[in-house]
Design goal:
It is a single chain. 35% of the residues lie in helices and 27% in strands. It has 9 helices and 16 strands. The longest helix has 15 residues.
């Protein structure tokens, strides 16, 4: 058994989800292998794109490894962060120039720095309800260098509790123990898989841990740091699947 654990945005969805790609995934699974997505997206966002694109999978790892679901969307493992840190963290993010913070948990909360930009169901920090826990808090800077600077500030102030993961000009902030590699290890414990079974595929900075840890492919469209870490480069998941079969 082999296990393909692939990022979604810029990786599995690079050049779209074609019928050829769907057929390759189906053939991979019918050959006794597992296929799943390891994404920085929260589960609601991830499910929206998966249902829209209509492809098969055996597992979903959301929030950069914080939550793992089987193909029937049963929670296999989950890592939470104490919600008490949410409000001071978001206050810092706003001070550092972030326009919003999305709190990912059972019912996500979008928090805006500017009340005039709030849509229905969103709030400002002043009227943020109590947050008992979160799996991830995400934000955006609109500039990679600014995002990198904020990552450094988060690391400096919250290094004992939080792990900020940059993805271009976006930042996903997860519990300190969480990253995509640890998510895959947790999956292996559930499916009784082996380290050598894993093939990790990614394109961006938040894929670093899994690309460095496992046998891996980087997308040809990926950032240079990921391509340098990966064992091989690929143009498309379809090509990768047929090569590995």
């Amino acid at each position: 058994m082999k296990i393909i654990a692939t990022d979604y945005d810029g990786t599995l969805n690079h050049n779209g989800i074609t019928d050829e790609k769907r057929k390759a995934i189906s053939k991979w699974r019918k050959s006794g292998n597992l296929f799943g997505v390891v994404s920085g997206r929260g589960i609601k966002s991830l499910l929206e794109v998966i249902q829209d694109k209509d492809f098969e999978y055996d597992f979903l790892i959301a929030n950069n490894g914080a939550i793992i679901f089987d193909k029937d969307l049963n929670v296999l493992t989950e890592t939470r962060c104490d919600g008490a840190i949410a409000k001071p963290l978001i206050a810092d993010l706003f001070q550092w120039g972030c326009p919003f913070a999305n709190i990912d948990k059972d019912e996500p909360i979008m928090v805006r720095s500017n009340a005039e930009e709030c849509k229905e169901g969103e709030c400002t920090l002043a009227d943020l309800p109590e947050v008992t826990y979160f799996n991830q808090i995400s934000t955006w800077l609109g500039d990679k260098e600014k995002a990198s600077a904020v990552v450094d500030k988060i690391n400096e102030k919250y290094s004992d509790t939080l792990n900020p993961l940059q993805n271009g000009d976006c930042i996903d902030i997860v519990p300190i123990s969480v990253n995509k590699a640890q998510g895959i290890y947790a999956l292996l414990g559930v499916v009784e898989g082996k380290y050598e079974d894993v093939i990790a595929v990614g394109d961006n900075i938040n894929d670093t841990h899994m690309i460095a840890e496992f046998r891996s492919y980087a997308m040809v469209n990926g950032v240079d740091s990921i391509k340098k870490l990966a064992d091989e480069i690929t143009d498309d998941i379809t090509d990768l699947i047929y090569k590995e079969l």
